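Figure 3 (text version): C-alpha cells given as input.
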C-alpha cells in the first residue's frame, strides 16, 4: 500500500512521520540532510506516495535534492499548513510531522511552485546588490551625522564628490579624521563591491532575451526585469496573466460574512521585493513626463490618480504592469504604448 510522509524541517534536525492506511506506522528524527532522509524513507516507506514539507529557508534545497533522489517531494504553503497544525494540543516537531503526514494522506494541502536553482541564483544576486546599496547609504548618512555634530556640513554630492568633500572638511581635524576615515574607507569598498555586482547584473540582463523584452516598457529597468523573470520563470506557470497580479499581492482582499461584505487593502502576499519594484516602476510611469514615456497605460493611471489619489493609482498601475509583463513574456511581443490600458 502507499505510504505518506510528513517532514517537519529545521536547520539541525528533521522530524519524520509515516502513515499508511489511515494509521501512523513509523516516526523518528534524523539530521536535516536530504540524502539521509531519502535513505530512511526508502527503508520505512518503500511505496512512498507523497513526501510533504512546508515552505522555509531550506525548502528549495530539500525539494530539488529529494526529487533528485527519486522522492515524490511536495512543498506546501506554510501559512495554510499552520492553521491546521495549530489545532494540536501540544506543539512539538513530532506532532507537526504527524499533522503534515495526515495532510499528505488526505490530500488537503496547497502545493507551491519551487523555483529552480538558476532563478534563486539570480534572486540572490539582486538581493546581495540591494543589501550593499543599503549599507552604503547607511554609512554615508552616518558619516554626515557624525560630522554635523562638529559643525562640518558635507555638501550635496555622491561618489567621488562625497569622498572629496569629506576629506577636505577633515583637513586639520586629526582626532575626528581618525574616527571618520575608517567609515569612509568602508563606504568606498562597499561601493566598489556594489559596482562589481552591478556589472554582473547587467551581464545577466544582456544574456536574457526575456529581460531585454521587458525593458521596452518605460520605467522598467534591469533590476525590475531580472527580478520579474526570476520570479515568474516560465509564463506557463500561470494560467492567465491576470493571476500574476494576485500572486504578487497587488489585489485587494475581500471579507464577506452574512450581511458584511467589503474590500480591504491589497493582500501583500508573495514576493515583497518584486512588489516594491513594480510599485517603483509605476511611480516612474506616473511622474516622469519625458518624451517617449507617453502611453495609454500612463494616461489610464493619471486618470485614476485624479479620482483615487496617487498611491491607489500607483498600486493599480503596478498590478497592470505585472499583467502586461506576463503577457509580453507569453507572446514575445514588445510593449505597445497604445494598448493595455483597460481597467
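Below: residues designed for each position.
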Amino acid at each position: 500500500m502507499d505510504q505518506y510522509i510528513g517532514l517537519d524541517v529545521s536547520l539541525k534536525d528533521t522530524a519524520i512521520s509515516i502513515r499508511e492506511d489511515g494509521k501512523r506506522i513509523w516516526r523518528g528524527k534524523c539530521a536535516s540532510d536530504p540524502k539521509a532522509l531519502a535513505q530512511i524513507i526508502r527503508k520505512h516507506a518503500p511505496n512512498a506516495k507523497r513526501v510533504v514539507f512546508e515552505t522555509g529557508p531550506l525548502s528549495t534545497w530539500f525539494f530539488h535534492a529529494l526529487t533528485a533522489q527519486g522522492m515524490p517531494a511536495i512543498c506546501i504553503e506554510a501559512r495554510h499548513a499552520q492553521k491546521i497544525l495549530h489545532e494540536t494540543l501540544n506543539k512539538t516537531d513530532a506532532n507537526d510531522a504527524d499533522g503534515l503526514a495526515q495532510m499528505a494522506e488526505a490530500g488537503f494541502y496547497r502545493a507551491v511552485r519551487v523555483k529552480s536553482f538558476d532563478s534563486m541564483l539570480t534572486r540572490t544576486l539582486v538581493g546581495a546588490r540591494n543589501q550593499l546599496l543599503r549599507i552604503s547609504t547607511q554609512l554615508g548618512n552616518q558619516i554626515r551625522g557624525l560630522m554635523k555634530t562638529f559643525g562640518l556640513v558635507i555638501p550635496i554630492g555622491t561618489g567621488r564628490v562625497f569622498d572629496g568633500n569629506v576629506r577636505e572638511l577633515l583637513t586639520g581635524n586629526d582626532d575626528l579624521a581618525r574616527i571618520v576615515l575608517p567609515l569612509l574607507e568602508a563606504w568606498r569598498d562597499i561601493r566598489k563591491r556594489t559596482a562589481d555586482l552591478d556589472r554582473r547584473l547587467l551581464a545577466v540582463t544582456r544574456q536574457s532575451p526575456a529581460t531585454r523584452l521587458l525593458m521596452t516598457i518605460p520605467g522598467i529597468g534591469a533590476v525590475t526585469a531580472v527580478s520579474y523573470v526570476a520570479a515568474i520563470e516560465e509564463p506557463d506557470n500561470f494560467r492567465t496573466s491576470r493571476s500574476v497580479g494576485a500572486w504578487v499581492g497587488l489585489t485587494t482582499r475581500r471579507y464577506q460574512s452574512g450581511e458584511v461584505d467589503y474590500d480591504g487593502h491589497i493582500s501583500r502576499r508573495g514576493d515583497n521585493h518584486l512588489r516594491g519594484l513594480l510599485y517603483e516602476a509605476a511611480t516612474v510611469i506616473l511622474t516622469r513626463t519625458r518624451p517617449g514615456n507617453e502611453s495609454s497605460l500612463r494616461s489610464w493611471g493619471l486618470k485614476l490618480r485624479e479620482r483615487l489619489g496617487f498611491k491607489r493609482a500607483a498600486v493599480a498601475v503596478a498590478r497592470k504592469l505585472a499583467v502586461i509583463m506576463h503577457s509580453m513574456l507569453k507572446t514575445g511581443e514588445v510593449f505597445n504604448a497604445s494598448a493595455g490600458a483597460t481597467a
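Residues 212-331 form one domain.
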